[in-house]
Amino acid sequence: MPFPERRDAQAGSKPRLAPPWALVVVVAAFSAGMVITILVWHSVRPDPFDAWVMRGQEAGAAYARRSGRIVSSAVAPGVIGAMLASTALAWRVGRWDAIILALIAVPGALGVEIVLKQLVHRQRPGGPDLVYPSGHLAVASAACLTLVLVLRVTTAPSRTRVAVVSLVVGAVLVIAAARLVETVHFLTDVLGGAATGIVVTVGAALAITALAAASQAGH
To answer: For residue 170, with 0-12 CB atoms within 10 Å meaning exposed, 13-18 middle and 19 or more buried, which class applies?
Structure first.
């Protein structure tokens, strides 16, 4: 079945899937993630920064742990919904590159997160669970960023795009807060999860854009 014909705001123009700032974001997020990874490598105790933040986490847990659990339980259906929405938007405008991104970003972030957990092997004191990076933040960041990138290549008005960006940034922050007040992660785990989702998603967008450009050049 052929893709539906795209109606661009500017006739004949097709914005690239990877935005101009993509490479800078990937390098920055990867660098931040590497620094955190080195700091927490095979650790079983919080570093001084995490220990300081834990005071606030424990205080927040007394009031908001139940709310945090509710938010965390909503992440999986929310991520699936974002994937479906991204795929539907990409299909509607006939962008196969955006469809691919919508289908691979979240599974890719989840796969990288699982591998990193085994490699870094960070544990909380007295617990066997591996906590770095946060899987919830990895997949949530990937799903939200995918939605933003896909919406960017549609004809949606700028007001809609700004509203979606505000919504997804808020959602990621709420999820991060939820994982912290549940005291299942240190702050560095949450930051590492977000960095993982960003690197995988924007890196995939760069790779897909490069492959699309190479394919067009070959014809």
So the answer is: exposed
Q: pLDDT at residue 3 above 50?
A: no
Please check the confidence at residue 4 and state whether its pLDDT lies above 70.
Answer: no
DSSP 21: T
Which residue type does 22 have? A
Contacts of 24 (CB under 8 A, 6+ apart): none
Rounded Cα–Cα distance for residues 126 and 80 (Å): 33
Question: What is the rounded CA–CA span in Å between residue 18 and residue 21?
Answer: 8
Rounded distance, CA 16 to CA 70, Å?
37
Helix, strand and coil content of the chain, in percent to the nearest 5, comes to 75, 0, 25
What tokens were used for 45? 């105790």
Give the predicted TM-score (pTM) of the model. 0.91
Name, in order, each residue with C-beta under 8 angstroms of 193's C-beta and a sequence gap of 6 or more: 113, 133, 134, 135, 136, 137, 138, 141, 185
Phi-psi region of 32 (alpha: psi -120 to 50; beta: other; left: phi over 0): alpha
- The C-alpha angle with vertex 130 and arms to 104 and 83, in degrees rounded to 5, equals 20
The mean pLDDT of 89-104, rounded to a whole number, is: 96
Q: Are 176 and 118 in contact (CB under 8 A)?
A: no
Give strand ranges (E) for 75-213. none
Sign of CA dihedral 144, 193, 34, 51: positive
pLDDT at 163: 95
**Integer CA distances (angstroms), 117 to 12, 34, 40, 183, 204, in order:** 45, 13, 11, 18, 21
